[in-house]
Design brief:
The structure is a single chain. The chain is elongated. It is an all-alpha fold. Helix 1 packs antiparallel against helix 2 and helix 2 packs antiparallel against helix 3. It has three helices and no strands.
Length: 74
């Protein structure tokens, strides 16, 4: 019974970490494939997402991605 309670406590954190990893990979692939290669923007965003995975991916998703979609349609 104690093992089941331990699993119940750990499971939400495991699911959250898996979701965060999938989101990070999605944003990294999105940046690498759809970000225009003008200047150093793509390199800077990739470096930000690699060195600050959670914050960098969230900032890219809410700030840069909508801007890129409105400019290029991708």
């Amino acid at each position: 019974m104690e093992a089941l309670m331990g699993l119940a406590c750990i499971l939400p954190f495991m699911l959250l970490s898996i979701a965060a990893t999938v989101f990070w990979i999605w944003m990294l692939v999105d940046c690498l494939t759809k970000e225009p290669s003008e200047g150093n923007d793509k390199i800077i965003w990739v470096l930000v997402m690699i060195f600050l995975p959670a914050i960098g991916s969230i900032v890219y998703y809410f700030i840069r991605r909508p801007e890129r979609i409105s400019q290029t349609g991708q």
